[in-house]
Amino acid sequence: MKCLVIRHLAFEDLGVFAPVLTERGYEIAYRQAGVHPLSQEEWLAADLGVVLGGPIGVYEQDRYPWLTQEMRRVGQRLRAGKPTLGICLGAQIIAAALGARVYPGKAKEIGWAPVSLTPEGQASPLRHLAGVPVLHWHGDTFDLPAGARLLAGTAITQHQAFAITDQALALQFHPEVDASAIECWLIGHTAELSQAGVDVVALREASQRHGAAAALAGAALLRDWLARG
Q1: What's 117's domain CATH number?
Q2: Boundaries of each Glutamine amidotransferase domain copy (predicted)?
């Protein structure tokens, strides 16, 4: 089986999700957004499509024209009922591909905190995250697409996760993050952290405290979701 991953930043990879996919027999291949062409045939042939996070906005297609094609490809997978997972920007791209609005949220949400699960979220693979702080790192949000099941939210961001049947899962937060590599995020996003007034030392310490439990919960979430697909 093949897992094809669209990556927007070199250091935002599959993280703790990679070993789960490998143990399930997936061959993982990355494609760098805006650099590596992604044909419709290759994208639709993949057994699993994953769209990872990034610091740009879905609505910046005038600045990043390749976003238009990326959203078109994601829409094609969704319409074909192919298993698709979106994280952060990837979740926003899924929302946009389904016709929902994506826009700046009311505040930056950067740091470790649990999500509040809806009743449907408690019955979904997200049940493994109950009470577990996860990494939030976003400024944008989205409206819930038509036909989507809302699974989780926070006080700042009402729409944190949704599902379309059992084939598509969109997660605004980062259950895939490997906290042992958080320094790459702290360096790569230093300008954003400074502009947002985030305490880098405190964020590093929180990552050390919560990383192990979040990794276990994230891996359990992915195993559960793959088993249902």
Answers
A1: 3.40.50.880
A2: 43-180
Closest CA to 189 of 178, 180, 179, 200: 200
The structural domain count of the chain equals 1
CB 151 within 8 A of CB 194: no
pLDDT digits (tens, 9 = 90+) for 73-120: 999 999 999 999 999 999 999 999 999 999 999 999 999 999 999 999
Q: Where are the alpha helices (DSSP H) in the chain?
A: 17-23, 40-45, 66-79, 89-97, 119-122, 182-188, 190-196, 200-228
pLDDT tens-digit map of 149-174: 999 999 999 999 999 988 999 999 99
Residues 117, 130 contacting (CB under 8 angstroms) = yes
54 within 8 A of 89, measured Cβ to Cβ: yes
Domain with 78 in it:
2-228
